[in-house]
């Protein structure tokens, strides 16, 4: 949310309109410019906002007027209850991590990095170039722009050890962000009513997608060191599952990264069971002390289906991700994405490709690492000093989040409310558990705005824990 001068004018005019009779004429733009000491552009923007809200109306050549208030008639949508029936299973609502917070709140709850951490100059220049290119008016092929497919394939190819075949560009399907890819994968590789193994805790958006598709989640306990392979082996054997959704690199929320030995064990188990590993490499660009090491690079047998998003590292406005799958799975996945959306905007793909192929992109990713290091350390230090009861099991080696365990008797919802009342937005850990939470956790994101306020935020959290 912003507090621009146009917002200020909107607020003042709304107050004025509230006491004005219907049909009253608003002062001229010139007098509003003088009254609010704002530019004509800003005043026009505020008027457009109020017109959009249906509060005033413009009569060209005559002026701007307060609209007649229509009496609100309560709608009765009750008939829809019978028409829709009950959903086959309860669909969880989107996590509180997605909520917008006012400017003056210290936002540790969100999952998306602040603008400061984005390659803003590169993104703006790419949009300008793409606006002049054919990509702005052409339809993209269904699987994506061939050059962008090649870029995703080459990136994974660089990590591929000798002895394994690197992926081909034709193995890549471009998606409008990885969230929609998760739904596609759960539909095509698992299917409604069938089991999907998932780390616990894991990404809430994956659980949301699973609930929408109707797959049955089978939680596998996991943490900063990844899952116990014996648990995984047992779950595959008991449930007959065909897929395991996991984040081996800088998991959201725990920040954990699997060791190479665990990665090999898991790959072996997946192969033995004729199953898929759905590898969500969401934090590929957010290594801090460690580099990402995708498991997909060590599988050329089609067992690993790999998703790698650019949304968080290029720009949340450039929703583009690459999915790499081999064999018939790739064809089914492509058929599903076509049924859902036909193709991804070629203009957005071209912007993403422009950004990641600039030499400055690599420089940006390196400087991002330095910034994430200092933000992470600042928040870890502040939490240890001011909120020692929030136990940070492991300092994350990558990703954007701290995962802190609270005393077992913590009333999480009260804690979140108390912190918010003191101007600090935090995310209760419950949303990241596919079944009952096994402890009380907080997820604290260190990539939001204003890291200078982390100390203050930790003080507020510490005091709120004390007050429980
Ligand atoms: C683990 C994980 N996967 C996928 C996503 C969704 O990414 P996208 O923005 O590309 O849809 C997120 C976003 O928070 C995430 O944390």
Automatic annotation (TrEMBL):
Domain HTH gntR-type: 3-69
Record Pfam families: Aminotran_1_2 (PF00155), GntR (PF00392)
Source superkingdom: Bacteria
Alphabetical UniProt keywords: Aminotransferase, DNA-binding, Pyridoxal phosphate, Transcription, Transcription regulation, Transferase
Leader sequence residues: none
Coiled coil: none
Gene Ontology molecular function, alphabetical: DNA binding; DNA-binding transcription factor activity; pyridoxal phosphate binding; transaminase activity
Keyword Transmembrane applies: no
PANTHER family reported in the protein's UniProt record: HTH-TYPE TRANSCRIPTIONAL REGULATORY PROTEIN GABR, TRANSCRIPTIONAL REGULATORY PROTEIN
Family membership: In the C-terminal section; belongs to the class-I pyridoxal-phosphate-dependent aminotransferase family.
Protein name (record): PLP-dependent aminotransferase family protein
Natural source organism: Leucobacter ruminantium
